[in-house]
Amino acid sequence: MANPTKQAPPLMPHATATWLVDNTGLTFAQIAAFCQIHVLEVQAIADETAASKLTPRDPVRAGELTMEEIEKGQADPSYRLKIIAGPAQVRRTSGPRYTPLAKRQDKPDGIAWIIRHHPEITDGQISKLIGTTKTTIAAIRTREHWNIANITPKDPVTLGLCAQRELDALVAAAAKKAGVAPQEDSRLGADRDAMLAELKAEREAHAEEGRETPREHTAETLFRTPE
After folding, report:
1. pTM tops 0.85
2. Which residues are CB-neighbours of 117 under 8 A, at least 6 positions away?
């Protein structure tokens, strides 16, 4: 009988599956269910046709499974093994957003972009979105930041500092609170103009050849605003 409670997979699912295939009589379905991978991946591991040969990882020694649990599974093919729950992970419930070390140097560029394009967003909101301090934001606003000469405004979404939906939601909320209309995003302006020029040239080339440009490829229909 399958375990109705969703459980966490082992730390290294494929390596654990390799060990279970080599050292137990569990079915491929049981191993796949325990490791939370596809049964065909287990089949590939058993047939040694997987993309890479993994070093087996013993889930018993790792404290994720007991031999008694394995024996239950071997005795009943319909049984689904239960992982030994580890200590609960401590989750961040407050404080600034965590940013990977490799991206932290990009924060000033992202902050400068928001300040330039969305002045209605407060320092507190920027702080929560980017994961930085108000002191840093204020220094960039007043151009007193120690590295201001090397700061170039760049879209924080492109830099990977936040998600587009998060930025859009923040812009809308800030605009509403400030009583102003949300600014139109001009990031695609250059691309739009280039595409219009390219489509116009293509239409003219087709006209010269005596062929009619398909309706869906015209610039007017591509960028027509719904009525």
Report:
1. no
2. 153, 183, 186
